[in-house]
Amino acid sequence: MGTHKTRTTSYHPQSDRMAECFNQTLERYLAKVVEKRQRDWDRHTQPFLLSYRIAVHESTSVTPALTKFGRELRLPADLITGIPPDAPRSITDYGNDLRNKINDIYEHVRQTGQQTSEKMKTRYDRKMNNKGFDEGCVVTQSSSQRREIS
């Protein structure tokens, strides 16, 4: 699958960026719903995870549930609105359809990721102030040579 775990130290967790971004999102959510004494935080994690999994992410333009399962999650409200269940199919047909659907979703996520990276690079480059030097300009140069002590 091409996945790999980066090794992080307990004092420098920033090297695992995806986990850190998720943790920040979770912390912001819990800060809004947990009571002052912070004793009920564990009751709020499951609703948060559901809302996180069904929310369309800006960078991928799809939900994590669609990316992982190849379909959107069914919610309790779907029972009321009457969304029909999937039509019964053979296991082979379902497996083939699911494989094709997930491949299409991953390709879409890859393309969207490239577009997002290009947007971020454009924004970064716009803020950069690269001043070139012309011949004859006065510049300073620092020397990093160490002096020997005699």
UniProtKB/TrEMBL annotation:
InterPro entries named in the record: Retrovirus_Pol_polyprotein (IPR050951), RNaseH-like_sf (IPR012337), RNaseH_sf (IPR036397)
Q: Which residues form a coiled coil?
A: none
According to the UniProt entry, its GO molecular function terms are: nucleic acid binding
Q: What is this protein called?
A: Integrase catalytic domain-containing protein
What species was this sequence derived from?
Parnassius mnemosyne (clouded apollo)
